[in-house]
Recover the amino acids of this structure.
């Protein structure tokens, strides 16, 4: 076997893999993904079983601590989270400072980073296990409150405080859709749909945002700032921001007369920068198993809620046309997790700009688990190399002679 470290030291040998298409950055025991077969498992459990039989909080526990919780473990986990759902009152001033139309992802990233100021004990890279567990609990608890308050602010409505009699997801829905004056009845269909969506987003091994969280944490930076960096990475339309971009695209196609073939042709045109949003994936060269579950859930939920959304018809037609087109077949471009998720979020009552924030809420346990694993494995600081292609040996010419 070649000793790469020795080779590097002796010769300056560097491997170049732009976009890290073939480079593994870590060994991980959290999520298994087979992109050729379309398989996804968290800690050995199939995503299909988890989406069907678990709650989001159970999956969060599984990802972070490695096993599904017992009844007393999940009760304790929920109880601890409930004790930390309030955010510091001073933090509300930050909400007031953002322009009312500012994008929720920019707000979320800043607010999560600011937790490191309110809870400075997180700055210690050598927290004990108990201290670190509390740092995690606070983050899980406050994230749901922060996300719902961002939504309330976008409406210009007063924020709703958490009610700790509710479970994690119900509490989130209460703070999001609730009123100050009365208890809004939270439909079981909505709670189940939300649990399912959050579970399906909870981890996805070394994607762009997760790699960001690990690499920021590798410098011994605190958990809250690392997650804030992950939120920024998720925001881009090539990653989590695609769920917003999909609905905007479907709306555009609808308003343009619904000619799906025209838009599929546009996506194939190499002189046009347009891509079919919600299509294609770096790792899946087959159906994204999450997209399959979400598509079915989408039909079920819209039927149960009695909603007839014309963009669902356009999405299905788009999928049909694209998947019978040699361009998409040859390049193995299938619908990804973001293709149908927005239609469900919309049916539940969320505005388009909130979609990526909901993705972040779901991805949070995965980011935490990956950060924790990176620390427990004592991984070295992340620091890729480069091949320098710039100028060499230039002498400075005085400014008046340049
Ligand atoms: N529409 C049209 N053509 C596409 C699409 C698409 N959605 N996706 C990829 N292609 C084409 C590319 O033009 C390229 O063609 P070429 O070989 O002729 O140059 C080929 O397929 C390979 O694409 P790459 O961009 O090289 O693949 P990469 O693995 O780097 O990118 C990505 C993956 C970013 C997801 C890409 O498929 C894309 O932009 N999809 C649309 C955005 C999207 O849905 N993102 C969400 C991904 S899931 C997630 O992050 C949660």
């Amino acid at each position: 076997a070649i000793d790469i470290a020795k080779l590097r030291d002796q010769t300056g040998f560097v491997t170049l893999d732009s976009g890290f298409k073939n480079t593994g950055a870590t060994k991980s025991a959290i999520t298994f993904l087979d992109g050729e077969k379309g398989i996804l498992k968290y800690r050995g459990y199939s995503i299909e079983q988890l989406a069907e039989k678990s709650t989001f909080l159970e999956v969060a526990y599984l990802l972070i601590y490695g096993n599904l919780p017992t009844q007393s473990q999940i009760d304790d986990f929920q109880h601890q989270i409930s004790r930390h759902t309030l955010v510091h009152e001073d933090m509300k001033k930050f909400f007031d400072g953002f322009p009312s139309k500012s994008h929720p992802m920019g707000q979320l990233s800043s607010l999560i980073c600011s937790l490191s100021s309110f809870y400075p004990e997180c700055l210690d890279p050598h927290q004990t296990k108990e201290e670190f567990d509390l740092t995690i609990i606070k983050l899980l608890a406050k994230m749901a409150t922060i996300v719902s308050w961002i939504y309330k602010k976008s409406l210009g409505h007063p924020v709703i405080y958490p009610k700790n009699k509710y479970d994690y997801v119900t509490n989130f829905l209460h703070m999001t859709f609730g009123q100050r004056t009365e208890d809004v009845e939270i439909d079981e269909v909505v709670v189940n749909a939300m649990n399912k969506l959050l579970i399906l987003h909870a981890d996805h091994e070394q994607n762009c945002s997760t790699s960001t969280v690990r690499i920021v944490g590798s410098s011994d930076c605190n958990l809250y700032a690392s997650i804030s960096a992950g939120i920024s990475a998720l925001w881009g339309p090539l990653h989590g921001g695609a769920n917003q971009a999909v609905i905007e695209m479907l709306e555009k196609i609808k308003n343009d007369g619904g000619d799906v073939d025209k838009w599929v042709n546009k996506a194939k045109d190499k002189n046009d920068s347009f891509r079919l949003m919600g299509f294609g994936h770096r790792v899946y060269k087959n159906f994204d198993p999450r997209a399959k579950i979400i598509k079915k859930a989408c039909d079920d939920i819209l039927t149960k809620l009695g909603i007839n959304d014309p963009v669902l018809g356009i999405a299905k037609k788009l999928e049909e046309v694209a998947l019978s087109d040699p361009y998409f077949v040859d390049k193995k471009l299938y619908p990804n997790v973001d293709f149908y998720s927005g239609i469900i979020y919309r049916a539940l009552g969320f505005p388009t700009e909130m979609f990526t924030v909901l993705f972040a809420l779901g991805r949070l346990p995965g980011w935490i688990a990956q950060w924790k694993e990176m620390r427990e494995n004592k991984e070295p600081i992340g620091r890729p190399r480069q091949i320098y292609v710039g100028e060499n040996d230039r002498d400075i010419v005085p400014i008046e002679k340049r």
